[in-house]
UniProtKB/TrEMBL annotation:
Name listed for the protein in its UniProt record: Glycoside hydrolase family 92 protein
Species in which this protein is naturally found: Mollisia scopiformis
Signal peptide: 1-25
Superkingdom: Eukaryota
Classification via Gene3D superfamilies: 2.70.98.10, alpha-1,2-mannosidase, alpha-1,2-mannosidases domains, GH92 mannosidase domain
Gene Ontology BP annotations: carbohydrate metabolic process; glycoprotein catabolic process
UniProt entry tagged with the keyword Signal: yes
Domain Glycosyl hydrolase family: 294-779
Matching InterPro entries: 6-hairpin_glycosidase_sf, GH-type_carb-bd, GH92_a_mannosidase_put, GH92_N, Glyco_hydro_92, PNGase
Keywords noted in UniProt: Signal
Ranges annotated as spanning the membrane: none
GO CC annotations, alphabetized: cytosol; nucleus
Domain Glycosyl hydrolase family 92 N-terminal intervals: 38-288
Amino acid sequence: MSLNMARSQGLSLLLAAAAIGSVVSQNSTSGSYDVLQYVNQLIGSSNGGNVFSGATLPYGMAKAVADTDSGSNQGGFTDDGSNVTGFSSMHDSGTGGSPSLGNFALFPYSACPGDDIDQCVYPKKSRKIPYVNSSVVATPGYFSIELASGVSVDMTTTQHTSLFRFKFPAMEAEGNASSPLILMDLTDLSDSRQDNASISVDAETGRMQGNARFLPSFGSGNYIAYFCADFSGSPIRDNGIYANSRASTDVKDLKISRSINGYPLPGGGFIRFESPGDNAILARVGVSLISSDQACSNAESEIPSFNFEATHTAAETEWRNKISPIVVNRSGVNDSMLQNFYSGIYRTMVNPQDYTGENPLWESDEPYFDSFYCIWDLFRSQMPFLTVLDPATVTKQIRSLIDTYVHEGWLPDCRMSLCKGYTQGGSNADNVLGDAYLKGLSDGIDWELGYAAVVNDAENEPYDWSNEGRGGLDSWKSLGYIPVQDFDYKGFGTMTRSVSRTLEYSYNDFVITQIAAGLGKQGDVEKYTGRSGNWKNLFKADQTSYNIYDGNVNTGFVGFFQPRYLNKTFGFQDPLKCSNIDTNENDVCSLQNTGAETFESSIWEYSFFVPHDQATLITTLGGPAAFVDRLNYLHDQDITYIGNEPAFLTVYQYHYAGRPGLSAKRSHFYIPTFFQPTDAGLPGNDDSGAMGSFVAFSMMGLFPNPGQNVYLIIPPFFESVSVTSPITNKTAMIRNINFDASYQNIYIQSATLNGEPYTKNWIDHSFFTEGKELVLTLGSTESAWGTQVADLPPSLGTYEGFGNFSINSTSSAMRKRAVRYASADLSEKLDFKTGGAYWAESEG
Ligand SMILES: *[C@@H]1O[C@H](CO)[C@@H](O)[C@H](O)[C@H]1NC(C)=O
Ligand SMILES: *[C@@H]1O[C@H](CO)[C@@H](O)[C@H](O)[C@H]1NC(C)=O
Ligand SMILES: *[C@@H]1O[C@H](CO)[C@@H](O)[C@H](O)[C@H]1NC(C)=O
Ligand SMILES: *[C@@H]1O[C@H](CO)[C@@H](O)[C@H](O)[C@H]1NC(C)=O
Ligand SMILES: *[C@@H]1O[C@H](CO)[C@@H](O)[C@H](O)[C@H]1NC(C)=O
Ligand SMILES: *[C@@H]1O[C@H](CO)[C@@H](O)[C@H](O)[C@H]1NC(C)=O
Ligand SMILES: *[C@@H]1O[C@H](CO)[C@@H](O)[C@H](O)[C@H]1NC(C)=O
Ligand SMILES: *[C@@H]1O[C@H](CO)[C@@H](O)[C@H](O)[C@H]1NC(C)=O
Ligand SMILES: *[C@@H]1O[C@H](CO)[C@@H](O)[C@H](O)[C@H]1NC(C)=O
Ligand SMILES: *[C@@H]1O[C@H](CO)[C@@H](O)[C@H](O)[C@H]1NC(C)=O
Ligand SMILES: *[C@@H]1O[C@H](CO)[C@@H](O)[C@H](O)[C@H]1NC(C)=O
């Protein structure tokens, strides 16, 4: 039996057990099946996906998994053969940067050599150990692994509490008595612990309580996390604390400094047990951001009796309830596609995390969510996806964002571990609020206050705009663009990205008009509509683009955005710089202070980022046929990279040029080639669940233009998809006639909505809330469906030049690529959060 087979058999056995008590059908044409069988949490657990593969509830604060010492261990566990360093209880998912969280790891030994506690190895760097690859099982609310020492560990969680179950190999055969030792390490994944961590061990009960101060992974400030660990399963033999590599049963309390060597001194507590025989030892670890007493009360109320099975089943039920409103017809579609789909859906609900009741920063009755990591990534499709599937939670997230504005003065653009995260471009929480407003989220949201928050972004410059808001607002208002080498004495941040910031601020201002219109603020609608046109001020109509990275070939396209100085003279950035094909190793494209005028992508790709005025953009770029040629060139020449979020909308922008069929074709070009249900199957960091939401929306056949009440229609990747609105209980359905699972028939020939002919190539959110039925008739060639100006999605400007346009007007064929083009070098260049160069530069 190969390891792979062992692993998948373990998985299906476990799923079979999990399915008891729920409606499960082996019949692929009948409607009912257990959605959880298609969740593969290990997707993205290697190759830089950085996905959290462990046990969590939806939006759970407790996230339990095995941590590894991989160079890419942001999600804790990395399936790349690196060593396990321990089992910790808080994580983020899919992020780059230095790893977040990973606080308070446990580590087990069957016995200390010679029965001497000093012979057990305490420091993380030396205790780490390989795992048995075939032993890994990861399913909703559950993670299990066996260490090379023979100790196997499985785990499940509630909202604030992890429950670990340790099973120790029989040792008597070797003539040794087993006397397991479990240590608790005052550490985190990135070794960021600051001074004066502490732990106390109760001699009688073995309870460990403590806390430590840590640093956020992509932001400013610090945070204190608290824990409370209790044990059960075997009589306690002794316990105590350790410092560095020495332990004592006499000492029960430890306060420990970071020490001076740039590495926190190893320290923590330990507990030793009488031989448990075949019994498991359970460790219940409550976490809190308020106090260790609260960590204890969280643990006691959530897992009162250490009941592993009940806790696991409750977690599964919660996940099943969240995901099962989306049902597809599985006929003809293989499990790979189903796993891509449902795992993508699953990952949208791992982060952000619900820390309600755990916020020490301000007093409030509002919900508190954290790990918006980062909104630049999340606004594009993850938050819109949750607005469809879990609007009640998005409502709470919006209330939390607004409450953060109330108490910290600004909406976040990124936030993790109670700290302000770095801003990547625009004030993109504006887009999140606008999207939710347009889609009717209201329960308990004070939209006047929400509006004040987005206007604050548009009008007031923060002193530190690396953390919030926007920079360069004086220039923005007076010149109508963010100048390269701006003069800005009011606020401070990294003076780069002038092109991408101008484009994002333009869109942010447009989204503000959407809320303003709904609230009847007509003057503001006009003011911000005007500013939303600022993108035009950076367009240089005669700018050419040669591929200097490959033979200096003329791309043939003329007219690109360019950086512009305060004196209105244009500067120059090669339109392909920071693109996927930029091979110049000296180009830096992220938040480094030597970074480019575009963030994590090229002028080529940002050329399309005018989500609110595609009509005017299409005219600006030479009309619909030229626009389609340019989009094709962007994709076919690999200038864009689907592993980073700015690529998402470009897959679907053919709709605006009257070519919805090409969006469908492009979507199938990327899925499944770039999205596979394997450990290495993601093209880049998942970025919370951003990649997951791209796959989920794409395969559902609707893709949002976030911040607008618009979903662009392509055929779902299934014969049918239905989504039951958790708000209205109404079920929306998309059905494909002539569906074929080999995806030859991917072109819509005609459509009906609730039985009436429907020619628009987009639909609005009432489709979901009112439970409409969209029936698409498919064929193997493009048709005239959705191609007329009247069929196109809304745009601020007027569509022009569509009269003579026919679907024959471009001959560009899409290239199918068998191999992924994400080289490690490239992702470092693109992704500041995995690079580390910024730190070196800013510290050096
Ligand atoms: C599958 O389920 C459907 C609906 O319940 C039923 O009509 C059909 O006979 C079943 N097919 C098989 C092969 O069991
Ligand atoms: C699923 O699709 C197949 C193939 O089109 C069809 O025969 C079957 O009736 C559908 N099942 C359901 C439950 O709609
Ligand atoms: C472990 O097994 C998985 C699944 O079979 C495989 O993708 C992965 O590469 C393996 N990891 C190592 C380090 O061999
Ligand atoms: C894992 O740790 C073992 C020692 O336990 C060491 O021999 C091995 O090289 C480590 N593996 C990796 C990938 O670091
Ligand atoms: C087991 O016993 C042997 C010999 O008695 C000793 O050398 C070894 O260290 C023991 N192992 C453990 C884990 O205690
Ligand atoms: C840490 O503890 C030491 C010794 O008690 C004390 O002098 C110091 O002020 C503490 N540092 C912090 C940051 O609390
Ligand atoms: C505008 O400013 C830039 C940058 O300082 C400078 O290179 C350029 O010559 C100036 N243009 C004019 C017309 O003064
Ligand atoms: C939706 O269904 C749930 C569960 O059956 C029920 O509690 C709720 O009141 C329903 N909501 C509406 C709007 O019908
Ligand atoms: C599943 O179906 C897709 C689409 O037809 C195909 O590309 C893929 O190779 C299939 N996967 C497997 C494992 O058969
Ligand atoms: C449409 O076709 C006519 C006649 O061939 C041509 O004169 C006109 O420029 C075309 N318009 C566009 C927008 O291409
Ligand atoms: C595309 O061109 C073909 C052959 O020239 C023609 O038969 C077809 O009608 C054209 N399609 C459209 C939609 O113009």
